[in-house]
Amino acid sequence: MGYSARGFDIYAMDVEKRDLMEIVSVPQAGAISLEKAQENAQPDAAPGVAAASMLTAEVLPAVTYAENETALPAQGYSPWRSLAPNWWTPYLEIDDQRTVLGLSTFGSDALDRHIFAATLAYDFENSITQGGVDYFYDGLWPILHVGISRETSLTVDSNDNPVRVRAEDQLILETIFPFLGQRRNIFLHAAAVQETESDEWTNGVPPLADYHDDFAGTALRYDSSRHYPLSVSRSEGRDLRLIYEDTDLYGNSNRKGQVTVAEWREFFHIGREHVLALRLTEGRGRNNPAPFRLGGIQDDDTVLSVLMAGETAPLFNKRDYSLRGYSEGNAQLVGTNMRLFSAEYRFPVARIEHGWMVPPVGVNQVHGTLFYDVGGVWDTGSGPADYYAGAGLEINADLDLFYNFRINASLGFATGLDDTLGEDK
């Protein structure tokens, strides 16, 4: 079969003679009778050629084409039509201190040069709105990132009741230099961040002063971890992060100081889909930076970092770290320096791989996590005076929404092992 600007031409080949013979060209294509085709058959030709020659009989009048073909005008690429979001997903976070409900969405143009994600949610337990918008431009090297966000922090009394809710509004301008390889990726980050912190409401405690901080940050990340399609999580390799922030470099910060954070995550494949995940994090502050806070459940993954395979994991101005089995906002878990270790055994429960057309939801697999956390904070010296440990179990379900967007739904139980601060959550 041949193809030209006018359509298709059909040929036959005599295998023994290796001759190519045209059967029907486009201008001659039409309907013929079986009798007329048989009259034109060549009896001494090879079977395939003889059958093909039947099609060379007289046909209906040839199709005519215009001499001048219409040229379609060329247009420059515009990302805006494909950039608009065309789906959203619920955002839900519930524990004994927060009841957060909202929605998230994501969009990118056809060439994945312009990428954005947005989340808007409301904490009904503490009466405050939170969320954020992140935009990335990946048409150049490096990647450019602009983001605005509002997060919240809690202070609780001895009965674990919130007595203060503070809003933390942040603007970040960031460049990301990716060095991508077959077995490992390296990312160099540089950012300028502006943050404003203020009381949203208080209950029985004196208000705190508002804070405004301007700081510059740089970070280096090495990632050789692998997350295979049927595994329950990243199952081998390591993820290393080194972050430095300085609020005394420019601007007019109320809390002037320097912060360094080092983190090591290691993943061991221990058979089939079973994984042992270890994490060690240490944060150090000098002079008067914003303190670290342990407790509650602080999720590292944003919608955008999940969809972009972790390339956009948030690194800067992170002061809140999970310590499961302990409430967020305990004064004993707030300090200038922080050390945290966690070990998780992740195991498969069931591979379901079933979904529905309406609603467009599928359940890929269910898996569990046994975890142990231990951490502490301190202001002076070389380490915490007290460590606080917690342990528990999580059941996770990998859900497929809208046929190609995967999220993780988690339900868990944690118990704090300290007699004073530990709780069942």
Structural class: mainly beta
Structure summary, number of beta strands? 21
Give the proportion of residues in helices: under 10%
Question: Which sequence of strands runs across the widest sheet?
Answer: 4-5-6-7-8-9-10-11-12-13-14-18-19-20-21
SS field, number of helical segments = 4
Instruction: Sum up the overall morphology in one term.
Output: globular
Percent range for β-strand residues: over 45%
Cα distance spanning the termini: 70 Å
Largest sheet: 15 strands, antiparallel
The mean pLDDT is 84
Order of helices and strands: EEEHHHEEEEEEEEEEEEHEEEEEE
**Whole-number radius of gyration?**
32 Å
**Regions with little confidence, pLDDT below 50 for 5+ residues:** 26-38, 46-60
Salient structural properties:
4 helices; three-stranded antiparallel β-sheet; 5% helix; mainly beta; 15-stranded antiparallel β-sheet; 425 residues
In short:
This protein is mostly beta strands.
Architecture overview:
The radius of gyration is 32 Å and the shape is globular. A hairpin with a 5-residue loop joins strand 13 and strand 14. Strands 4-5-6-7-8-9-10-11-12-13-14-18-19-20-21 form a 15-stranded antiparallel beta sheet. The chain has 425 residues and is mainly beta. The chain contains four helices and 21 strands.
